[in-house]
From TrEMBL:
It comes from Plantactinospora endophytica. Residues 55-338 form the Tryptophan synthase beta chain-like PALP domain. Pfam families: PALP (PF00291). PANTHER family: THREONINE DEHYDRATASE, THREONINE DEHYDRATASE, MITOCHONDRIAL-RELATED. The lineage of its organism: Bacteria, Bacillati, Actinomycetota, Actinomycetes, Micromonosporales. The keyword Plastid does not apply. This is Threonine dehydratase. Gene3D superfamilies: 3.40.50.1100.
């Protein structure tokens, strides 16, 4: 069902392009930036709190991939860390502040990566971490959450049911609920990726960001708006999980009844209004891509970059594949945001 809604909406979205109202390099950034919940000084300070194992990740031009895609392609690699995703940046902030305040426990809902990151950061600080996840989440993510010492509760429904259950659990126990993308630390943590990008970017470049709840896009977008305003910031979501993208184009929260995508890390249905407001200030465009392009993107990242990635991390490459003219000859950075993938499914996807 979500697929048909999304397919119709994609046509509408494409007919509305270009969304950017000024040429790259001509944007006036200051007012828009002040209107988000984020603050550049706090983002800079976050770097002193986050364990360095998550920081200053590799950023490099990948020539073989760029040749295939028809644009200069840079990779920002967020998978070479203990939890194989960027989410550790945010959970380091959440847990360090919680521990400072004397908190002993935290609960979160997770599609799989936030739960691992909270488990890792919480364990370091002696916190009891409970993660609520969907039983449809990849087994490898659920296993790693448990292996990190977190308590895992699995719900018989999707990520949105896990969110509801996490709220109830935190209330019952009187402990901190960590809400990804709503809690400012999750956005600030992700925003530190933006600080690591700015020096490598020039006006007219594009940055492609996988869009789920929106922490990464609002965080990175905020930094780029402020420090590299000529850079185009583009969010990418699957056609099968389009709620936040539809919301961005409609400028109001749009929900869907279901999701249908292999990109489990970005498959939410209920966008958070405050996050949407921020996203509207700092993002130039939000696009939807097909499952076939995501699979091709994963295969290309394996073949031409030597990277095993989960589907959400291939969204940027998928976006280039679906609109090559838009990116032809430009410098495009794609954030490789997660590498937690079930091996059997991965092998199926990348086999031709
Ligand atoms: C691998 C991966 N990519 C992208 C996202 C989406 O990030 P955000 O929820 O910050 O939009 C997630 C979210 O957990 C993720 O795990």
């Amino acid at each position: 069902m979500a697929r048909s809604v999304a397919a119709r909406s994609l046509a509408t979205i494409r007919s509305r392009r270009p969304v950017r109202r000024t040429a790259p390099g001509c944007r006036v950034p200051s007012l828009a930036v002040r209107q988000t919940r984020l603050d550049l000084d706090r983002i800079r300070a976050a770097r002193n709190v986050i364990d360095p194992v998550f920081l200053t990740t590799p950023l490099y031009r990948c020539e073989p991939l760029g040749r295939q895609l028809g644009c200069t392609t840079s990779i920002k690699l967020e998978t070479a860390n203990p939890v194989r995703s960027f989410k550790g940046r945010g959970t380091e902030l959440v847990t360090s502040r919680l521990a400072e305040q004397g908190g002993m426990a935290a609960v979160c809902a997770s599609a799989g990566n936030l739960g691992q990151a909270l488990g890792w950061s919480g364990r370091r600080r002696g916190l009891d971490v409970t993660v609520v996840a969907s039983r449809f989440a990849p087994t490898v993510k659920l296993d790693r959450i448990r292996a990190l010492g977190a308590q895992l509760e699995v719900v018989d429904g999707d990520f949105e049911l896990a969110r509801t259950r996490a709220v109830d659990l935190a209330e019952q126990r009187g402990v901190r609920l960590v809400e990804d993308s709503l809690d400012i630390e999750t956005c600030e943590g992700a925003a530190t990726i933006g600080l690591e990008l700015v020096n490598a970017l020039s006006s007219g470049d594009a940055v492609l960001i996988a869009l789920g709840g929106g922490a990464m896009a609002t965080g990175v977008g905020h930094v780029l708006r402020a420090l590299a305003p000529g850079v185009e910031v583009i969010c990418v979501q699957p056609l099968g999980a389009p709620a936040m993208t539809l919301s961005w184009h409609e400028r109001r929260v749009v929900t869907t009844d279901s999701t249908d995508t292999i990109a489990d890390g970005v498959a939410g249905r209920y966008p958070i209004p405050a996050v949407l407001d921020d996203l509207l200030q700092v993002v130039d465009d939000a696009v939807l891509v097909s499952e076939a392009s995501i699979v091709t993107g994963m295969r290309m990242l394996l073949e031409h970059a030597g990277l095993v990635v989960e589907p959400s991390a291939a969204l940027g490459v998928a976006a280039i594949l679906e609109d090559p003219d838009r990116f032809a000859g430009r410098h495009v950075v794609t954030i490789i945001c997660g590498g937690n993938v079930d091996l059997a499914a991965y092998q199926r996807w990348v086999q031709r």
